Amino acid sequence: MTATTSGAEAQAETQMGPLVRRLPPSLLCEAPAGRVAVVGGSLERTGAPFFASMAALRCGAEQALVLCTREAAAAVGAYAPEVRALPLLDAEHGRSVATSRLAEAHSLVVGPGLGEDVALQALVVAMLRRLAESKSLARMSLVFDGDGIGLLADNKDVVAGHAGRVYLTASADEVRKLAFAYLGRRDVDGRDHAALGTYRAQPAPRSTTLHGVQRPQRTAIEKPPTGCGSLRPLCARTYGQLAARVNRNAVLVLKGREDRIVVEGATYTCSVSDGLRRIGGHGDLMAGFLAVFAYWAALHDDEEGSSGGGGGGADDDDRRGRQATSPPPPPAAAVAAYAACALVRHCSRFAFQSAGRSAITSDMLAQIPKAFAECFAT
Hints:
- Keywords: ATP-binding, Lyase, NAD, NADP, Nucleotide-binding, Phosphoprotein.
- The protein is globular.
- Helix content is 46%, strand content 15%.
- It has helices at residues 9-21, 47-58, 70-79, 94-102, 118-133, 147-154, 172-183, 192-195, 233-246, 282-307, 314-325, 332-355, 361-366, 368-376; strands at residues 35-39, 63-68, 84-87, 107-110, 141-145, 166-170, 200-202, 206-208, 214-216, 220-222, 250-254, 259-263, 266-270.
- The longest helix has 26 residues, at 282-307.
- It has a 9-stranded mixed beta sheet, sandwiched between helices. It has a two-stranded antiparallel ribbon with strand order 7-10. A two-stranded antiparallel ribbon has the order 8-9.
- By secondary structure, it is of the alpha/beta class.
C-alpha cells in the first residue's frame, strides 16, 4: 500500500500489514461483529445481493439482510437460508418499513442487482434521504457498488449531508459516469486510474511477415518510470475532488489492475496478487467485505476518539515526538478499503489456482476462509 501524499511509501507499506491485522474485533469483544443490509436484487439480478450478503457473513458479520423486490426475495432466500431476504422495495408500504429495518444494521450496501428501473431507484433515493434525517442512522457506513454508482450519478445530492463514511467502489466506466455527473467532465477516461502507475500500452512498429503481409507486432507494454507507482498529482487531485463532491467523508475505491483508494486527500494502492481471470461477481464480494470492514473501522475510530481526550504529560509528549518524525498512519477507512481489496484478490487467486478458467464466483466464495486467514494472519 502506498501513500502518495506523505512521500514515505516504504513506511506506509510497512504500516499497513499490522493495521489490517488489527482491524477485526476480538472474538471476546462485547460489541457486535456487524450487521449488514444490502439494498438490491431485482427480477433478473438475484445473484449479486446473494454474493454481497454471503461475503459479509463469511468474513465475520453476524447478520445479513437483503432488501429486494418481491420477485427476487424467494430466489435470494432459497440460495442461502442464513440471509434474511425481505421483499420491500416494490411494496406500497415498503419505504417506511425498509427504513425501520435498516435501524438494525451497522452498514448498508446499495446497488448489487438493483437494476435501472426508475421507480425502484426513486424509492431507494427516498430511503437514503430518510437515513440522513434519522439521528440513529446518520452515521451508518454506506457502500455504493454497481447500479448504486449510477444512482448517485443521477441523484448527486442524495448522500451529500450524510455524517458517516460513504464508500464508492467504481469500475472504469463508473468513474467516467461519476466524473461527468459531479465534475462536468466528459474528457475523463475511466481507465486512467488503471493505466497510470501500472502499465500503458504503446503502439509498436509494424513488421513485414509471411508473404509480405504487414501484421502488427505484439503491443509494447511500457512500465512507468520509477516513482510513478501512484496516480499523477493532477489525477490524484481530480479524484480527491470527485470524492469530496460526493460527500466530505467519501472514500473512492478505483478498481483496476491495481486498486486505488482515495481518502482525505491521500491515495493508497493495493497491488496484492489476484487470479489471472476477472470473475463476474468480483465486485459484489468486495462490497460485502467492505461493508463489514467499514463498521470495524468505525469501531476503531470510536475507540480512538474516546481515548484521545484524557492523559497528557509524558505520554502525550512521546506521541507528539513520534508524529513529528514519522508520517501519519492511514485513516481507519483507508485500512478498511485496503483490506476489502486485498481479501477479494486473495479469493480470486485461490479460486483460479483451484479451478483455473472455469472458476466462478461461488469458487471465490468458498475460498473466503482461506483468504481471510491469509489476509489477517489468523
